[in-house]
């Protein structure tokens, strides 16, 4: 199993969820919550699995950061076979669709996209909430290759399992990928940074901060016992940790 972090950069997120790329020049002056945006590509014998899709950040040349990283790894977007979405906040889905002169298209055209149906229903009740980009979301859900997930937990393949855990959003789901005795765990925004394991806090930015905190305590124990590799979507410095 190969893990490739697809870090778009470190950003400051304002209260209205506008993202500003952090640089050495502005790091100390930009207000907002500082975080990375870092999807992950997991390559197994059977699949090229993308865990969340980022915000589709573009560099000065107009190319997306993720496409540049994939190109350096000699991977084409057509090779992605599965896109697993933990939840539908804008910084996790915007990279899944690409604007063209004729509208929008799937960024990863051959990928089956896995979306929790109850998470979509929750998002659609929150029109006007700046955590969601409803223009992108409405384009996303029109794509042809979507698997609508309704179960609380289960197997996507023999290697990929999921569970709807809530916490950050009511129906956020997390994923395990297991192959050849190795386990990769993606806790998405219930476990976005390594510091969340150091400080046992309930965060007000979560829908149910106490539940997310309790889940982290549970996962920390299981990760230590089973030697999971933990993927950190929003950590400024780290991508993958073991505890």
Automatic annotation (TrEMBL):
Coiled coil: none annotated. The keyword Zinc applies. Keywords: Hydrolase, Metal-binding, Zinc. Residues 36-234 form the Metallo-beta-lactamase domain. InterPro entries: MBL_superfamily_lactonases, Metallo-B-lactamas, RibonucZ/Hydroxyglut_hydro. SUPFAM superfamilies: Metallo-hydrolase/oxidoreductase. Belongs to the metallo-beta-lactamase superfamily. This is Glyoxylase-like metal-dependent hydrolase (Beta-lactamase superfamily II). It comes from Chryseobacterium sediminis.
């Amino acid at each position: 199993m190969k893990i490739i972090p697809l870090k778009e950069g470190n950003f400051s997120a304002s209260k209205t969820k506008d993202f500003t790329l952090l640089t050495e020049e502005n790091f100390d002056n930009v207000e907002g919550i500082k975080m990375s945006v870092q999807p992950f590509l997991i390559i197994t014998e059977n699949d090229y699995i993308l865990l969340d899709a980022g915000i589709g950040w573009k560099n000065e040349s107009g190319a997306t950061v993720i496409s540049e990283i994939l190109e350096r790894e000699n991977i084409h977007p057509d090779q992605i076979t599965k896109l697993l979405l933990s939840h539908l906040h804008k910084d996790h889905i915007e990279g899944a669709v690409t604007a063209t002169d004729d509208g929008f298209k799937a960024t990863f055209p051959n990928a089956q996209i896995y979306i929790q149906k109850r998470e979509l229903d929750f998002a659609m009740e929150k029109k006007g909430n700046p955590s969601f980009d409803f223009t992108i979301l409405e384009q996303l859900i029109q794509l042809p290759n979507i698997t609508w997930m309704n179960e609380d937990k289960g197997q996507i393949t023999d290697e990929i399992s999921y569970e709807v855990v809530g916490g950050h959003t009511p129906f956020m789901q997390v994923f395990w990928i297991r192959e050849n005795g190795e386990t990769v765990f993606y806790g998405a925004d219930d476990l976005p940074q390594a510091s969340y394991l150091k400080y046992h806090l309930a965060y007000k930015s979560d829908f149910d901060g106490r539940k997310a905190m309790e889940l982290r305590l549970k996962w920390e124990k299981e990760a230590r016992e089973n030697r999971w590799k933990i993927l950190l979507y929003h950590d400024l410095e780290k991508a993958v940790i073991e505890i």
